[in-house]
Design brief:
Elements lengths: L23 H13 L3 H7 L2 H7 L4 H15 L1
Helix pairs in contact: 1-2, 1-4, 3-4
Length: 75
């Protein structure tokens, strides 16, 4: 039985690099989770990116966007 051919990187099935753009709702939910968590907002702002994302069950891009948004709100 023949195996189906897998699409190559250059095939029409390939759409390029995956992208993720966090929404305002994503960022708000992350901030709410951080406020309820024992490590708090300080950990959201200063913790290692991967650890923060894993702790709060968020995409790393959402963590970055939330940090930028909170920094703008403070200035």
């Amino acid at each position: 039985m023949d195996q189906p051919e897998r699409p190559s990187v250059g095939s029409k099935c390939w759409s390029g690099p995956l992208q993720f753009t966090p929404t305002v709702a994503d960022m708000n939910a992350l901030v709410r989770r951080a406020k309820r968590h024992p490590l708090g907002i300080e950990f959201l702002l200063t913790g290692e990116l991967g650890s923060v994302a894993a702790t709060f069950h968020a995409h790393a891009f959402t963590v970055i966007a939330a940090r930028e948004r909170l920094a703008k709100a403070e200035s």
